[in-house]
Amino acid sequence: MNIDWAALGEVFGVTLVVTVALVGLFTLGIVGTARKPGASATAGGAGALARTGAYAAFALCAAAVGYGISLIVG
Cα(69)–Cα(53) distance, rounded to whole angstroms? Predict the structure, then answer.
């Protein structure tokens, strides 16, 4: 049995980067939905923009998970 250490290291590196990116994206989604609608009077439409960005972050997370599942199944 021969282990290809370069390929194993590449898989580990890509997995680490994608995991950190996905967790960061999900965290941005949580922070965006945690903002209260009328918290700052000077922000104007920033609350709606934050909520829209949060939903986009959640959609990207769902797309990444769906892509991962399609790689495993297909």
Answer: 24
